[in-house]
Amino acid sequence: MLALLPAACAPGPRAPAHPGTFEARAWPTMELRPNTAARGLVARVGEVTVLEGDADLVSGAPGQYGLRFDEARNDLAAVVARLAAEGLDVPATLVLFTTFDDQAGGGPAYFVPISNDTEGTGLGPVDQRDLFGAHALEGLPT
Questions:
Q1: Distance (Å, whole) CA 12 – CA 45
Q2: Do the domain assignments include residue 44?
Q3: In which domain, by residue range, is 114 found?
Q4: Which of 48, 67, 116, 128 has the fewest CB atoms within 10 Å of its CB?
Q5: 12-60 pLDDT tens trace
Q6: Residue 130 pLDDT level (bands cut at 50, 70, 90)
Q7: In angstroms, rounded to a whole number, what is the distance separating the alpha carbons of residues 3 and 10?
Q8: Residue 15 lies in a domain
Q9: Rounded distance, CA 118 to CA 139, Å?
């Protein structure tokens, strides 16, 4: 006689999503940009998309702008969701270049994984697709 327990066949608990190499800096006292009247411009030429920052995408104040990715605010997810809404949610890695010194980032470059189901990369499984509003993009190196 063979008895199987359904729980024994279920996958084990998932590890928390890997945060990537992003390390948030201390943030200036003024947390958010003043509200703007209009949503930022989105324009695409070939494989380059220009996304104008607005109060929903960029934190800070003049001279202290940044893309936050912390418990209080996730500007990176807002950027990805805006691009996905414009039809740019494709299997790729999204590379961001800012026109300002990113005061929120932990250095000149970092990587935030969105999705990874490939074993052997050192990251382990990552699934933050719902958080970022994209289902095909794999990550954000900036």
A1: 45
A2: yes
A3: 37-142
A4: 48
A5: 555 666 666 666 665 544 444 455 455 677 888 788 888 888 888 888 8
A6: very high
A7: 15
A8: no
A9: 13
